[in-house]
């Protein structure tokens, strides 16, 4: 395998540094904290059900963003096609859910 050498006058001086476990540990701890908050909100029992559902949905979206970005490395360069396909899938799934709810509750 050959490596590409840059001359000292080359404008490209950045080297790719491997991502260490520090970010993964921070994201893992943040995910655990979000899970504990969700569990506490439901286990408390005195929380308004509407607030609990909204809180759970917001924390679920945060979990998805964190896990897609850091664990699946979608924050890195060169991952635009998987992101586009996932957004397309979310759009189609959301449309199907909305239309099925509309169809069920049609007067």
UniProtKB/TrEMBL annotation:
UniProt main location, coarse: membrane
Pfam families: COX4_pro
Keywords: Cell membrane, Membrane, Transmembrane, Transmembrane helix
Spans traversing the lipid bilayer: 25-45, 51-71, 83-105
This protein's record includes keyword Cell membrane: yes
Hydrolase recorded as keyword: no
One of the record's GO molecular function terms: proton transmembrane transporter activity
Xref: InterPro entries: Cyt_c_oxidase_su4_prok (IPR005171), Cytochrome_c_oxidase_bac_sub4 (IPR050968)
Record's bilayer topology term: Multi-pass membrane protein
Subcellular location: Cell membrane
Chain segments annotated as coiled-coil in the UniProt record: none
Record's GO cellular component terms: cytochrome o ubiquinol oxidase complex; plasma membrane
Highest taxon listed in the record's lineage: Bacteria
GO BP terms in the entry: aerobic electron transport chain; electron transport coupled proton transport
UniProt family annotation: Belongs to the cytochrome c oxidase bacterial subunit 4 family.
Protein name according to UniProt: Cytochrome C oxidase subunit IV
Record organism: Paenibacillus borealis
Species lineage: Bacteria, Bacillati, Bacillota, Bacilli, Bacillales
């Amino acid at each position: 395998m050959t490596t590409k050498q840059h001359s000292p006058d080359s404008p490209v001086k950045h080297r790719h540094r491997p991502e260490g476990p520090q970010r993964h540990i921070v994201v893992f701890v943040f995910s655990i904290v979000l899970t504990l908050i969700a569990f506490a909100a439901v286990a408390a029992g005195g929380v308004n059900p509407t607030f609990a559902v909204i809180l759970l949905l917001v924390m679920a979206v945060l979990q998805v963003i964190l896990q897609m970005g850091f664990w699946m490395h979608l924050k890195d360069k060169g991952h635009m096609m998987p992101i586009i396909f996932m957004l397309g899938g979310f759009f189609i799934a959301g449309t199907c859910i909305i239309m099925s709810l509309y169809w069920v509750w049609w007067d």
